[in-house]
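re: ur question from earlier - yeah i can do the single chain one, its not a big deal. heres the input i used so u can compare w yours
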Amino acid sequence: MRVTACRVCAAAPLADVLDFGTVALANSYLPDAAAAAMEPRYPMALCLCQACGHLQINEEVPPADLFRNYLYVTGTSDAVHQHGRLLNASLSAVLPSGRQAAPFIVEAASNDGTILALFKKAGWRVLGVDPAENIADMANARGVETWPTFFSRQTAGEIVARHGRADVFLGRHVLAHVAGLHDFLDGVRAVLRDDGAAVVECPHVLPMFTELQYDQVYHEHLGFFSVTVLRRLFAMHGLELFAVREVGMHGGSLLAFAQPAGAGRPEEASVSRIMQREAEVGVGTLEAWRGFADRVIRQREALVAELTTLRRQGKRVAAYGAAAKGQVMLQWCGIGPDLVEFIVDKSELKQGRLTPGTHIPILAPQALLDRQPDVVLLCAWNFADEILRQQKAYLDRGGRFLHPIPLPHYL
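and the output i got, formated as tokens:
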């Protein structure tokens, strides 16, 4: 469905930034070549609301098509486990003094329960909400109660009726996926105690802009947030932004801490400081984002040229990381099996399938040693350090990793 008005402030029309054309869903991995022949594709363009500065795409795919049978699981990354431990410490620090021994946390889009399991181990009461029924089943099987549904105002009411209000609401990388932002945030306010805290993690437009992270743009990611926009959005729902942390997850993300209006926590200097940096870079302006689009086109030309040169030299090229961002890049650049023989990924749910849109076979990481390609394109560049540590044997045997952004370079 085409969207013409801003999801935050409802202003129209949206200004075009970069048209990705008609592409396959980035997380819709295909079982075989027959499925590839019938693969659905949808239009997608990156746009800016010039009224409030919110960056967003202009297309909405039915959420059930995106999330009901999902193949991304949190627990495959070591970095996510480490991040979860840091989250536990950060969220414990925002609890009011004198809170009961077992604080209650609700996480929206809780995936396989990896993060909530860490909170449960630390003595918290936990509840997850995730619409992917297959992934919710995995969470429940590990002892993390998870409701297989979308978080909303109605869901929040049902949670309060059955479990009471939450001390903390956690939404990790879900706000970008939400078309009905106002219903979602009404639910956040409704599920929280009056002295509770909401912690929302989302990709930050500042590193997205400066580091050319255009591969953040896919149909699941409806919007891309600045602190400036988040502060305004929270205020529309009786929530006050009181602190912001910059974290390294997914190439550069925000941890935004909000509270019900009047809860009493003072606003930290981090909020105004990052808003000032956003203003200096111009992430709320059309001029800046159209310059971004020109850089993206140049990156595509450079990456395709490098891969084409490698193949002409007789070099064998593979890729690492079948995550969604890599599928954005492969489709945008038109990179298929003629340039990349195969792609490896740790997720067993993806192995044996084909990548969406480009139809490259997905294998287990062991294939890098079994087949020893000359070069591996690092699609999951946000986990570069972790991948290089894990693939030391491949590197020791002469393999090379090609990092694609902001321009192709070897690690």
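The domain at 287-410 is CATH 3.40.50.720 (Rossmann fold). not sure if urs matches, ping me
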